[in-house]
Amino acid sequence: MISYFVWFNFITRSLKGPRVWPLLGSLPGLIENCDRMHDWITDNLRMCGGTYQTCICAVPFLAQKQGLVTVTCDPKNLEHILKNWFENYPNGPTWQSVFHDLLGEGIFNSDGDTWLFQRKTAALEFTTRTLRQAMARWLNQTIKFRFCPILKTAQLEAKPVDLHDLLLRLTFDNICGLTFGRDPQTLSAGLPDNGFAIAFDRATEATLQRFILPEVVWKLKKWLRLGMEVSLSQSLEHVEEYLSNVIKTRKLELLNQQENGSLQHDDLLSRFMKKKESYSNSFLQHVALNFILAGRDTSSVALSWFFWLLIHNPKVEEKIVREICTVLIETRGDDTTKWNDEPLMFDEVDRLIFCRMVHSCPQDRRSHIRYIQRAG
Ligand code: HEM
């Protein structure tokens, strides 16, 4: 007992930020503020001048392994971590083992050469005009033929809509089209349930639950097939079966395409497949899943927050409408009745400065290999 408190005092003496309790670390504060977690972290950062260290698990050995956390929003620290010394701050083994069942060695869950190769392939593709065109095509079709009609019907019937749900469906359909060329149409009249979308959501939620528990506990639960681990493995089976069918079909189509020059596929999966023929189905599945995770919730959450902010700031809304009008007068002429015929095209959106302002990724997490003193 005495030696624990000697250790506890030693470890917490230099920590700033929220109160750290014996054994429980800063978890009580986190639990108390779980419905305003980002606000709570922002309050802590403000109180500590932009950076603090805390302990989320005040247990000897565990604390050193994964309990001590540095939280920062200081631009100099961010530059140090994400740019100058990027190799020193990988995802790390804890993160990788939590996400491995869902994301495999995909771009979000890999470091070193595996990450670099996928990053280069993706970065190369993201600068191509054809990918941008594909992205605009998938999105515009969904907005024009499904998103706007649903809003129109709700308006005519004077019924409320769950905008966040609609946006989640919109970005899910869009990212599936872009990633593997198949639109699951979760955004359509009646808002149908979709097995793949549900399984993907369940798998993500169950994976995130692993973060709450110490590694040995969730691994034991996985081994014993208990709780959310059961849901995770069932959902993953569903997701894998769905994607495996997509990949098998696409491989055949690409083969036929080479033989008789038929239909061209411009989705990300086909682009990865065309780079090298021998990727395993499992690797390609993980490439697809990583892109779905990357592009779905990020975009829908950004859009939901965007509209929420607009509702609360009518002056900004007015400025944004004015900015859109300035662009549309140049690109579509001054007959405003035709402006709503088609959603905005990529080049039009590209000219809107306000679109670059919203960034809704509140937290990013990195581990570290060794201690490096930041320059400056
Ligand atoms: C508003 C929407 C988005 C936000 C806020 C956002 C935010 C981010 C952030 C913060 C990261 C860095 C993650 C890390 O440090 O590991 C990231 C990485 C990434 N994002 Fe996005 N993202 C958005 C949309 C998209 C979309 C639509 C796609 C794909 C079509 C995408 C693809 C990726 C990929 C592939 C990476 C991994 C890059 C790497 O590790 O090298 N993102 N995104």
SSE topology sketch:
Layout: H1 2-12, H2 27-32, H3 37-47, E1 51-55, H4 62-67, E2 68-72, H5 75-84, H6 92-103, H7 112-126, H8 129-156, H9 163-180, H10 195-212, H11 215-224, H12 228-260, H13 268-275, H14 281-295, H15 297-312, H16 314-332, H17 346-350
Antiparallel strand pairs: 1-2
Helix pairs in contact: 6-10, 8-9, 9-14, 9-15, 10-12, 12-13, 12-14
The structure holds protoporphyrin IX containing FE.
Residues 107-108, 119, 122, 178, 291, 294-295, 298-299, 302, 359-361, 364 line the site of protoporphyrin IX containing FE (HEM).
Note down, in words, how this protein is organized.
The chain is mainly α and 376 residues long. The protein has three domains: 1-73, no CATH class; 93-301, Orthogonal Bundle (Cytochrome p450); 313-375, no CATH class. It has 17 helices and two strands. The protein has helices spanning 2-12, 27-32, 37-47, 62-67, 75-84, 92-103, 112-126, 129-156, 163-180, 195-212, 215-224, 228-260, 268-275, 281-295, 297-312, 314-332, 346-350; strands at residues 51-55, 68-72. Strands 1-2 form a two-stranded antiparallel sheet. The mean pLDDT is 90. The site of protoporphyrin IX containing FE has 15 residues, from helix 7, helix 14 and helix 15. Pfam families: p450. GO terms for molecular function: heme binding; iron ion binding; monooxygenase activity; oxidoreductase activity, acting on paired donors, with incorporation or reduction of molecular oxygen. It comes from Macleaya cordata. Belongs to the cytochrome P450 family. Keywords: Iron, Metal-binding, Oxidoreductase.
